[in-house]
Write a structure and sequence with these properties.
- The chain is mainly α.
- It has one domain.
- Helix content is 59%, strand content 0%.
- The chain has helices at 5-18, 31-38, 42-49.
């Protein structure tokens, strides 16, 4: 089964929340950082940020 890039990004963010790295009210990484680290395009980032 194919794993999409946004799914990898979402899994990382979920793990950071579970591990207490990200707290309620924390900002997600910038679009530039996400693009460089996870190779997501802005439309994919915007879709994930609405979750």
């Amino acid at each position: 089964m194919k794993t999409y890039k946004y799914e990898t990004f979402t899994a990382v963010i979920e793990e950071q929340i579970r591990n207490g790295i990200l707290q309620n009210g924390d900002k997600l990484p910038s679009i530039r950082e996400i693009k460089e680290r996870y190779h997501l395009r802005p439309p994919q980032y915007k879709a994930v940020s609405n979750i």
